[in-house]
Amino acid sequence: MSFHYELRFSAIGGQGIITAGTLLAESVVEYKNLYAIHSPRYTAQVRGGPTKVDVIIDEKPIYFPKTTDVDFYLSTSQRSFEAYFQDIKEGAIIVLDSNLVGEFNDPKYRIYRIPIIETAAKEIGNIVTVSTLSLAITAKLTGLITLEELEDFIPKKVPKGFEEINLKAVRVGYNIV
Amino acid sequence: MRKVMPGNETIAHAAIAAGCRFFAGYPITPSSELAAAMSYLLPKVGGKFIQMEDEIASMAAAIGASITGEKSMTATSGPGFSLKQEHIGLACMMEVPVVIVNVMRGGPSTGLPTHPAQGDIMQARWGTHGDHPIIAVAPSLPREIYLETIRAFNLAEQYRNPVILLLDEILGHTYEVVDIPEPGEYDIINRKLPPKGLNRLDFYTYQRDEGDPPLLPNFFMGYNFHFESLAHDEMGFPTTDPEKVDRITRLREAKIEKNKEKIWKNHLLMVEDADTVIIAIGSVARSAIAAVEMARKEGIKLGLFRPITVWPFPDEPLREAITEKQRVIVAEMNLGQLKGEVEKALRREVEGLNKVNGVPISPKEILEKVKEGK
User: Fold this and answer.
1) Is B195 inside any structural domain?
2) N or C terminus: which one in chain B shows less Cβ crowding within 10 Å?
3) Could you report the predicted ipTM of this complex, rounded to two decimals?
């Protein structure tokens, strides 16, 4: 079977997690010459409602753009985590914001608890870096994209004046795991 | 060039490449990204973007712009598509080229704004009243979305008729890799115009041979002429003369009917040796492609007939491709709109795989239906 990897990011609309999924898909297309698809899902309540984005990465063109066996799941909200806890593969990596998602233990999964939002706000110094931070955490845990590639990619994608702080988020994300 | 973008944005880029220089729209999920993209792309090429006060006005503005000679487009979803229908009829009647994108969502009414459906196949054909010609195309894959958008403009210009570009929420919202074709890889067709300097008293704007579109001038070409929503004669003036009304109604119909072989476009995947053939369009057809791949690995002879032109419906191509012995399953996200047309074309009953819950039909579900047997 050729390379195929499925990821899910869920959050409350506006937190920046959908952007993390977008950036991941774009970065693997740019650096790894793979096919990637990402499909965001929100409810009618775009901001403040539970949202998710599914990312599929494959060597070949992807026909069915929905996830069926999720290998990696990152969530920064209790409500969204529960709402979108479907099709998670046994052995999947699960990353939870330790301040925002309650205890979750299941030997079927590899679970990581990281204070993502708090780290962005306090250690990095700007909450808007949540997207980059989540992307870096994902990159480190999955090996889908290297630190050097992210350091090249991120400054091209963030608004002018925010390059340095996002590069800081990349490094913090890589080391926090 | 390769780019990661959602179907809605792909359409916007393709429209610009096709020569579209006017967009009027009103935001509606799941098509809004298309209007957003047009709002920043059009000014860069000297085009105009207007967010109108509502769906009806957007359709009217798109028609108005086209009459001046600009290639124009509007985009919407189910509820907005319903509102636009009266003016779609106006464009059919006046024979004005215009492209209407409908990114389908669950209905009726406001329905499921953020979920996919394919419930507007019949609305695309018969949404506006009266006998009228229509073209609708339904691409499935990213590069195809780009190329079919260009073809939609070409068809609109060539036949002077509204062309509906049918997508669904999945295609509109899914970000994926688009291999953008280079300008030399597709044709651009512009509407034919009458020569300048004709004597306007001898010039019958709606006169044409059967099967041809009329040779209408654009506004500001120096001709006085009449655009009319009432039944009109070949000069464009209202008439109730039964002979004239009959003639122009049939002429409008004939320009599509006589050229349908050129308008039809189908994708056939392993149909010839198949025991079972799936018929599907849009995002469901993508699941069907995956299902065919899965089935063939298991030794199941499954094929796919995918109409890319939905209207005029490819009845003759279906009859040619599918034999009496082949089992036919129409997979669609509605309760059988395409199935009815397939049955009409094949003159027999076929099976349906239908979903109307806002959840896409997966390749696995198609394969299960195939294995289930009749």
Assistant:
1) no
2) C
3) 0.89
